Amino acid sequence: RHLDSASFYANEDQVGEAIAASGIDRKELYVATKVWTDCIGKGPVAVEASVRKSLELLNLDYVDCCYVHWPCEGYIECYHTLEKLCDQGLVRAIGLSNFRIEDYEKLLQANIRILPIVNQLEVNPWMYRKDTIEYFQQQNMHIVAYKPLLRGKAATDPKVLELSNTLQLSPGQLLIRWLLDKSIIVIPRSQNEERMHQNLHSPDLKPLDSETTHFLDSIMAPDDLANFDEHFSRRAVVDANGPTLALYSGSN
Questions:
Q1: Strand 30-35 to 65-68 pairing
Q2: Distances (CA, A) of 169 to 31, 77, 158, 162, 187
Q3: Where is average pLDDT lowest: 39-53, 59-73, 128-142, 147-161?
Q4: Are 143 and 119 in contact (CB under 8 A)?
């Protein structure tokens, strides 16, 4: 039971209420949070305050993983702060999110003591950075895929629809199975109960054949990567609007 949370999502109080109401033993839950770029940019005090506030809102003594949400200015100091919180038992493991190879290699040069266990990336047929994924997997890191269905594009793309109909799968099942075949952890999102059930049963489906895999591997166009690079340049900076500062760091 993997709960992927973050200060930026502004719903950790609701997640905490749901955890408490579920009655599920804490040991059966894997709860992650993330530190947003505004707190990263403010420095170690704000980073620690962000994690402690997440724990308060989630009503937990520890999180299983805390991510550096984007590799913005200050991310190395943020990482070292998370190492200290690991020492204190507030964080069990550290994760990266949206890190490129060069961002991670710069982090390694900073003499980190605790290696990250995961890099959370956008991964879908329209954003499939094979070299990046394989690099981090070779570093013994898990890859967690967000936007695996690209906010519903899987259900409208003609190529994916045709292929999923041929295989008698839902578009979501097709793409989730594609990712699972690559040993990628998937966190799909849906408000449709039927699709939720379909997604949950994707691991029970047989692996895709090589022709199908190659087809999905080859969908991404050069413009898709250019769009990601533009998105990265906007996100991997300290958020000047400070959306989490007031609540998570006690400052503004």
A1: parallel
A2: 30, 45, 14, 10, 18
A3: 147-161
A4: yes
As a whole number of angstroms, the distance between CA 35 and CA 46 comes to 9
Q: What torsion do the CA atoms of 119, 125, 129, 134 make, to the nearest 10 degrees?
A: 60
pLDDT at 122 over 70: yes
Distance, in Å, from the CA atom of 103 to the CA atom of 127, rounded to the nearest integer, reads 19
In 3D, which of 31, 49, 36 has the Cα closest to residue 10?
Answer: 36
**CB of 155 closer than 8 Å to CB of 161:** yes
C-alpha 100/C-alpha 129 separation (Å) is: 10
pTM of the model as a whole? 0.93
Comparing CA positions, the residue from 168, 144, 155, 165 lying closest to residue 195 is: 155
* C-alpha closest to that of 127 among 202, 227, 211, 208: 227
CA distances from residue 151 to 28, 187, 234 in whole angstroms, order as listed:
28, 12, 20
Per-residue pLDDT tens digits for 166-222: 999 989 999 999 999 999 999 866 566 666 666 565 667 789 999 999 999 999 998
- Write out the two tokens for 84: 């200290």
Residue positions annotated with a catalytic role: 9
